[in-house]
Design a protein that fits this description.
Elements (H helix, E strand, L loop, with lengths): L14 E2 L2 E5 L7 H14 L7 E7 L5 H14 L2 E8 L2 H10 L4 E5 L8 E7 L8 H12 L15 E3 L3 H11 L11 E5 L8 H8 L3 E5 L18 H10 L3 E5 L6 E4 L5 E2 L1 H14 L7 E5 L4 H9 L3 E5 L3 H10 L4 E3 L5 E3 L8 H15 L15 E7 L12 H14 L4 E6 L5 E7 L3 H24 L1
Parallel strand pairs: 3-4, 3-5, 4-7, 8-9, 8-10, 13-14
Antiparallel strand pairs: 1-2, 2-6, 5-6, 10-11, 11-12, 15-16, 17-19, 18-19
């Protein structure tokens, strides 16, 4: 089964599936582009003659010092006041945009990528990430930036540091944990990936009563996500086993996702987290509808589990904003993806790794079970995800080529009735993702190895023509 994205994606110059992202100080992640984004977004979100406001946060990448002032200059030139909050998680910017009644929010981050990359994510006044349509309209303004009329000097905006932003988010985080429960006598290993949550996350867990052993909380501008965090959680899991912790939590660079380790050092990915949290919501009658939103690569085993307890899995394209769009359409209040993005719309408009982790701890406390015993009924199928690099933009939609479709069809036949294949272009890197799953692990390994080889060969042929 192939996944076909919006055809407009190919026409974009700047925005991908999660804002604008790329190698820092190389087009499009340059100070010049950031200036244009600030000007264009400032123009787009300005309505009427009142004073408008934008909140800007960032993670701990060195390049944030270049992008933040460029964005600030752009917004100020359009008459917007700028609130600067420094290193803060992406979900905090979503929350602050809405609570501070700003017209737009900006997060400077490349999420789980290495420090060499950076990105710009925009939020609307409701705290939601912008739609494809919104981003395309901002792009059209950026293309005509030289024709943009700037405000008169007397109407220029001002910039101000907001010193208590972390405290506002901290209180929000604590409010998502049941007031009847406490983290006293809970030992937690927390890996903040040397990223945006390095200060606020340990403090939140400590204030809730936990004993917190912190890792990845010494950012230096270049060590974000480096051998740590949700993409490299091995250090966290080893520490859990070493000190006998009850749970391990690994956040990514902007803290909108998490990977959990049980007390034995075994990982729980986003599919397990989604299943465990959904069951808690079902038992406590917190579900708004009996459906949960996942993605095209959500494990079939999780779908089988949901069906067994009377729930339906709805599949969206990969990317938290596509999950959120489907959640709104079907009035769902839980969604998520394998990477650890868990969206709980009762609490916020984007994924929040710390909120998701606290939900798992709530399950542990309420059921009086260790993390290793949570979600034992969930039987995920063996699944592999591989990537094939491409160079030319025309390869973005290569999964629609007849030869590629035939390869996928043949692969699915080999995998049998329970097997499936999903091909999709990465929204953040020049890679085609290949996901395959079936009940037989040996067959899965052989099939995806052959499929990756064939697709790589076809991409090379395709790009030569």
């Amino acid at each position: 089964m192939t996944e076909v994205r919006d055809s407009e994606m190919n026409k974009r110059k700047y925005f991908g599936t999660d804002g604008i992202r790329g190698r820092a100080n190389i087009y499009p992640i340059t100070g010049e582009t950031a200036l244009k984004v600030g000007m264009a977004a400032g123009k787009y979100f300005t309505t009427g003659k009142r004073r408008h406001h934008v909140v800007i946060g960032k993670d701990t990448r060195l390049s944030g010092y270049m992008i933040e002032p460029s964005l600030t200059a752009g917004f100020i030139s359009m008459g917007m006041n700028v609130y600067l909050v420094g290193p803060m998680p992406t979900p905090a910017i979503s929350m602050l945009t809405k609570s501070m009644r700003c017209d737009v929010g900006v997060m400077i981050s490349a999420s789980h990528n290495s420090y060499e990359d950076n990105g710009i994510k925009l939020f609307g006044p409701d705290g939601n990430k912008l739609s494809d349509k919104n981003e395309m309209e901002i792009e059209s303004i950026m293309d005509k930036i030289n024709d943009l009329q700037l405000v008169e000097s007397k109407f220029l905006g001002r910039a101000k540091r907001i010193d208590d932003a972390a405290g506002r988010y901290l209180e929000f985080i604590k409010s998502t944990f049941p007031s009847s429960l406490s983290l006293k006598n809970i030992k937690i290993v927390l890996d903040c990936a040397n990223g945006a949550a390095y200060e606020v996350a340990p403090r939140a867990l400590w204030e809730l009563g936990a004993e917190v052993i912190s890792l990845g909380c010494s950012p230096d501008g270049t060590n974000i996500n480096y051998n740590c965090g949700s993409t490299h959680p091995e250090m966290m899991a080893e520490k859990v086993k070493e000190i006998g912790a009850d749970i391990g939590i690994a956040l990514d660079g902007d803290a909108d996702r998490c990977i959990i380790s049980d007390e034995k050092g075994k990982f729980l990915n986003g599919d397990y987290l989604l299943g465990i949290i959904a069951k808690r919501y079902l038992d406590k009658k917190l579900l708004k509808n009996k459906n949960i939103v996942g993605t095209q690569i959500t494990n079939k085993g999780l779908e089988n589990y949901f069906n067994s307890i009377g729930l339906e899995l709805l599949r969206a394209e990969v990317g938290d904003r596509y999950i959120i769009e489907k959640m709104k359409k079907y009035s769902s209040n839980i969604g998520g993806e394998q990477s650890g993005h868990i969206i709980l719309s009762d609490y916020g408009n984007t994924g929040d790794g710390l909120v998701a982790a606290l939900q798992i701890i709530a399950c542990m406390k309420e059921q009086k079970l260790p993390v290793s015993q949570l979600g034992k009924e969930i039987k995920l199928l063996p699944q592999l995800i591989e990537s094939v690099n491409y160079n030319s933009l025309k390869s973005y939609a290569i999964q629609q080529e007849p030869k590629i479709c035939e390869e996928v069809l043949q692969a699915e036949k080999k995998l049998g009735k329970t097997g499936r294949v999903v091909l999709r272009p990465s929204g953040t890197e020049k890679k085609i993702r290949i996901m395959a799953e079936c009940e037989e692990e040996n067959l899965l390994n052989k099939t995806i190895k052959n499929l990756k080889s064939r697709i790589s060969t076809l991409i090379n042929e395709y790009e030569k023509n």
